[in-house]
Amino acid sequence: MKKIETDAQYQKALKQIDELMLKIGDDHSFDNPEFVMMDRLSDLVTDYEDQHYKIETPSLIEVIKLRMYEMGLKQSDLAQLLGVSKSRISEYLRGKRDITLDVARKLHNQLKIDGDIILQ
Q: For the chain, what is the domain count?
């Protein structure tokens, strides 16, 4: 198979990979033809998934809300952590106001949000 073009081919390739993984066990050598086949199928599956099942990068607001959930923070907690008012946090989370450079730095330092997400 040179390329996976249909969902049926994709499902078949996934099944073959599962079967090959059981056969291969710990023999991850390129001398093992089953390992080579599994490696090739994995590349084809990845290409198909990249084309058909793209995962969108979350927005900064979505990431902030996720981090708040993970850290058990309420808007008032986040306001205190970032040194801004509760109403300002509300504006940020509703997309009514752009995040300032100072707040962006604090999001990175305090909430460990990746700078690339902040700058998007």
A: 2
